Amino acid sequence: MAEAIPNAEMRCEDYERFIDAYIDEEFGERERADMEAHLDHCPCCREKVQCQLKFKEHMRAHLGGERAPEALKARVLEGLAACEKSEREARRRFPSASRVGWVAGPLAAMVALVVVMPELTVAPAVSGQAPVIDHTVDWHRGNFPLEVTTASSDEAQEWFEGKVDFSVRLPQFGDQRVNLLGGRIAHIEDRRAALVLYEVEGERLSVILFDGDGLTVPRGTVRRVEDRDIVWLNQKGYGVAVLQDQGVTYAMTSDLPEERFLALVSSAIER
After folding, report:
1. DSSP 5
2. Residue 23 contacts residue 53 (beta carbons within 8 Å)
3. SS3 call for 165
4. Non-local CB neighbours of 104 within 8 Å, separated by 6+ positions
5. Fold of 125-270
6. Residue 71 half-sphere exposure, CB side, CA atoms within 13 Å?
7. What are phi and psi of 146, to 5 degrees?
8. pTM of the model
9. Ordered per-residue pLDDT tens for the chain, 271 residues
């Protein structure tokens, strides 16, 4: 359920933060009525709603992409369940195993090798362009209003809880000149995503996090950075770095110089 719209008098900028929730039909009847009453007499907010609707319709019409088959998802879940069962049995038979990890640890590791992508690595490469790349650039240059403004990574991560169906863990850049501005809900293809915006020496750096299940990337764009594979390419004049961590895809976009941008990506991987 979306956060309720307060009954007190609100300005347009107060309503703007609820536009995504309104479009996604996350309001109750009272909240929807309040929002629509405002839209009836506010052409500015009404135009923003229409713009967001057209944007999503355009993306649904033009951005395709295959998802991992349901059978694979079922096998992954079965593997995780089997791992958990083995760990419980190991603890019952060998109480010390939970402390030394000589039984449960190897079992979990074997399953992880099969079903969990290594930290910060890309999905198997393909020859065609990945539609998500265009989409992430569109979100970066769209200058959409932030729904939460904060310089605290912990506060931003907490705000996203329950709004996306994965755990939001923001990258930790090893550079004090990278300043967090805030974030908002975004959409990558049919996936609900978390968009986080940073400021770096007067330039914008956006990071979009989304469920990376089934993601494929263009062959020949993979680079090795700090012993990790990332996708690096230039799209519409912007640098884009795509990497994965435990099934969550991180798409970083900026017009920073390539060397500077890659240094930031490298600092995030190191940490």
Report:
1. P
2. yes
3. coil
4. 86, 87, 90, 91, 97, 98
5. Phosphorylase Kinase; domain 1 (3.30.200)
6. 0
7. -75, 145
8. 0.54
9. 445 454 445 678 778 778 888 887 777 777 788 888 888 888 888 888 888 888 777 766 655 555 556 666 676 777 777 766 666 665 555 444 444 333 334 433 333 323 233 344 444 444 455 677 788 888 888 888 999 999 999 999 999 999 998 889 998 887 888 999 999 999 887 789 999 999 998 889 999 999 877 666 666 677 777 667 788 888 788 888 888 877 788 999 998 888 888 888 888 876 5
Per-domain boundaries in the chain? 12-62, 70-115, 125-270
Q: In whole angstroms, what is the distance from residue 54 CA to residue 246 CA?
A: 33
> Tell me, what's the pLDDT at 130?
61
Instruction: Name the amino acid, one letter, at 65.
Output: G
What six digits make up the tokens of 179?
Answer: 């300043």
Tell me, letter by letter, the H, E, C secondary structure of 43-84: HHHHHHHHHHHHHHHHHHHHCCCCCCCHHHHHHHHHHHHHHH
Round to whole Å and give the CA distance between 136 and 268.
Answer: 19
Q: How far apart are CA 237 and CA 261, in angstroms?
A: 14
C-beta contacts of 138-143 below 8 A and 24+ residues apart? 138/55, 138/59, 139/186, 139/188, 139/195, 139/206, 139/208, 139/253, 140/204, 140/206, 140/208, 140/238, 140/253, 140/254, 141/236, 141/238, 142/55
CA–CA separation, 148 and 254 (whole Å): 20
Closest CA to 161 of 183, 132, 137: 183
With tokens 């990258």, the residue in question is 171
